[in-house]
Amino acid sequence: MARVLVVGAGLTGSVCAALLRGAALGRIAVWDKARGAGGRMSTSSSARDAACIADLGAQYITLETEGAEARRSFYEELLSHGVLKPLTAPIEGMVVKEGSCNYVAPQGMSSVVKYYLKQSGADVFYEHHVTCISLQDGKWEVSRKMGPPEQFDVVVLTMPVPQILQLQGDIVNIINESQKQQLESASYSSRYALGLFYEAGTRIDVPWAAQYITDNPCIRFISIDNKKRNIESPEIGPSVVVHTTVMFGSEHLDSDPAEVQQLILNHLERIVPSLPKPASIKCQKWRYSQVTKAVPNCLGQMILHTQPLLICGGDGFTFSNFSGCIDSAMSLAEAVKSHL
Ligand SMILES: Cc1cc2nc3c(=O)[nH]c(=O)nc-3n(C[C@H](O)[C@H](O)[C@H](O)COP(=O)(O)OP(=O)(O)OC[C@H]3O[C@@H](n4cnc5c(N)ncnc54)[C@H](O)[C@@H]3O)c2cc1C
């Protein structure tokens, strides 16, 4: 029975683990360095009230008409389980493609990832930061920042491409020169996200649920997150999410987080002066936000070593949205199954 490790509890890793369930495998483990599920589809809670949540990464999911057939069952399953609901709240400045539909996750984007992790039946471990992958007796020995190394027959990597290239051990020499060039050519934008959490009963008096901003050097998107998710309740405080522009993100990538937070708040006050004072704030840096150039000439994954199998995927091998992750996860799962 093969022991499989999926590194990354983001959308690609969780869907891949779910697709591998039932294939003639031993147990599947999912490791993530973070403290919870979601990756760039994570949902944060207020420091004061765990029920007050906000999506600091992905905001909504779009089902495009093009090439939708293979992916349609994924959307339908999530809709039928109530994990996704149609986006009905007004979003100003959103470019709506003809024939496409948008969906939100009422319980936050991480609920989508949690749904697949549950489906997978995998053993999921957080705060497992993989640092080193080496060959040992025909298996992969995977080391992490804290705790002993463990051995696996198959390893699937789903983190952003630059983080794959940071891994140490035999993997460094296993990635051949042409693959290294392909991987190094992938690029990502960077941006900050701010989550503002309010006390229950606070009124946020704006006519929109979210809006894209086109004339501000710092802020690109503002959302009244609970209104966007169509959850407005007197018992749970509202939350606001702000995404910066890519330019602001890259200019302040290594600045002091407290200063960055204040700069964003200053711009926000000018754009929406009526916003009340939040009870708590979270500032999130997305160093690898969205893929601007995917790994070229690969169909959603790249095999780094065949026997034992070491394979990588994620939105860096397709494109940065729900469909891109589904495509990569399907491609990863097919490749793993055909090796078993
Ligand atoms: C601000 C923002 C807005 C977005 N908006 C949308 C949107 O509206 N709609 C949409 O569809 N998409 C959107 N996206 C894109 C979408 O979030 C991503 O395409 C998707 O989440 C990528 O999933 P993934 O599983 O491939 O990667 P990730 O979500 O990055 O998952 C990789 C996981 O690997 C873990 N990891 C990394 N290194 C290690 C290590 N060494 N050891 C262990 N674990 C590790 C990380 O903690 C992470 O959980 C947005 C993204 C951002 C950042």
TrEMBL record:
SUPFAM superfamilies: FAD/NAD(P)-binding domain. InterPro entries: Amino_oxidase, FAD/NAD-bd_sf, RNLS. It comes from the Eukaryota. Keywords: FAD, Flavoprotein. GO terms for cellular component: extracellular region. The keyword Transmembrane does not apply. Residues 97-292 form the Amine oxidase domain. GO terms for molecular function: epinephrine binding; monoamine oxidase activity; NADH binding; oxidoreductase activity, acting on NAD(P)H. One of its GO terms (biological process) is negative regulation of heart rate. This is Renalase, FAD dependent amine oxidase. It comes from Aquila chrysaetos chrysaetos.
